[in-house]
Amino acid sequence: MISRIFPKIVLLASCLSLASLAGCMMTPDNEASCPDIGDSGQLNVLTINLLFSEIETRDERLASIAQFIADNRVDFVMLQEVVGGQLVRTENSALDLQDALADDHGLTFDSRTAFETGIPGLLTVANAVLSRCDILDQRVQRLPKTSELEIGGQTFPLFRNVTMTRLDLPDVGNVSVYNTHLCARCTVAERAEQLNVLLDFVDESEAMTPSGVASVLGGDLNIDIFRDGGEARPLYDGIIGAGFTDTAADGRTLEELCENRRAADEHCTVGVSDLNGPNARRIDYIFARGFGEVLANRVAFNPLIDSEQPTVSDHAGVFSSIALPAIAVAGN
Q1: What is d(CA 238, CA 235) in angstroms, rounded to the nearest whole number?
Q2: In the 8-state DSSP scheme, what is residue 256?
Q3: What is the edge-to-edge ordering of all strands in the sheet holding 245-246?
Q4: Does some domain include residue 1?
Q5: What's the Cα-to-Cα distance from 161 to each of 56, 81, 195, 220, 228, rounded to whole Å?
Q6: Which residues, other chains included, contact 64 with Cβ-Cβ below 8 Å and sequence gap of 6+?
Q7: Of 108, 110, 176, 256, whose CA is between 20 and 30 Å from 139?
Q8: Can you give the CATH number for the domain in which 110 is found?
Q9: What is the rounded distance in angstroms from the CA atom of residue 82 to the CA atom of residue 55?
């Protein structure tokens, strides 16, 4: 297993020599298709942070994720901490997952990768998506940089982004999915600045596509509404105020969802695997807007609660089944 410290040194070099790889690498269309989506009446979405620094067991971890995707007919996957380069011995870990789905399960997914930071050829870190449905286009918005990397008493900026992926759902219409990874070792005020840019980007993107019927926002938001006396709760409320529904909170009160960091429950997304510490928190989310009811939601890959679930990252994943917009379904 690669040292937890070594990747930070590499990222420091990234910040100093390149600052950010801001472009978006568009991967070829693999003729992904989901003609059954209208008949199913639902969109199944998974988000998972892959943990860029863990490479020795990456193939096994990706195989477990691919098995989950196949078993649960996942339509769309949001990935954070996708990696590539010689130091991590892969060109693109999202494409590795795409290959595992094709080779082991006969499933064709389209993919898009949006790099955030790194040194091309050596180490890059990115957000990425996999889609069983046709991808029409993708837009990428860089978020305000924050000084969240500290080495030797000095802090250095890291860059983050949010990606908008437009899907064409047969018999339904255009749906937008926003995937992001907000800053981790930063202040709440800095994270709020990133979130404000993200929500403005959502509004701008939706205004550009009046034919859009619904949208999903998810990823590793690093928002824990209970930490430090609820200091980050206004950020969560801002997302809800923008018209989104927290798929995990639908039909539940927030106080039921991973409120005790010393006692992880089935809703926690960190502090539940062997690859991170014991402090349990819920910081990974799927939000939906314009859809019907939330049909199902659960945390996947939480071995602390269910020992039969595999460890795939220092994060658990969030899996949601959301009813397609009523108007669109009625038009089938």
Answers
A1: 5
A2: G
A3: 134-151, 154-169, 173-181, 212-220, 284-289, 245-246
A4: no
A5: 27, 12, 10, 12, 26
A6: 301, 310, 312
A7: 108
A8: 3.60.10.10
A9: 11
The pair of three-digit structure tokens given for residue 32, joined into one six-digit string: 């992904």
**DSSP conformational letter for 301:** S
Handedness of CA 129, 143, 284, 303 (dihedral sign): positive
Kindly report the pTM of this predicted structure.
Answer: 0.90
* Among the listed residues 309, 245, 304, the one whose alpha carbon sits nearest the alpha carbon of residue 270: 304
Q: Establish if 100 belongs to a structural domain.
A: yes
Residue type (1 letter), 161: N
CA 110 – CA 28 distance, rounded (Å): 8
pLDDT over 70 percentage in the chain: 86
- Tell whether 19 is covered by a domain: yes
Q: Which residue has the tokens 């993919």?
A: 111
Number of domains comprising the chain: 1
Confidence band of 21 (pLDDT split at 50, 70, 90): very low
pLDDT tens digits, residue range 71-113? 999 999 999 999 999 999 999 999 999 999 999 999 999 999 9
Q: Sorting pLDDT into bands at 50, 70 and 90, what band is 276?
A: confident
In-domain check, residue 272: yes
| pLDDT tens sequence across 32-69 | 789 999 999 999 999 999 999 999 999 999 999 999 99
CB 298 within 8 A of CB 331: no
Which of the two residues, 151 and 223, has the higher pLDDT score? 223
Q: Are 15 and 149 in contact (CB under 8 A)?
A: yes
Distance of CA 213 to the CA centre of its chain: 21
CA 189 centroid distance within chain:
22
Structural domain boundaries, residue 239: 6-330
Contact status, residue 161 vs residue 127, Cβ threshold 8 Å? yes
* R_g (Cα) of the chain, nearest Å: 19
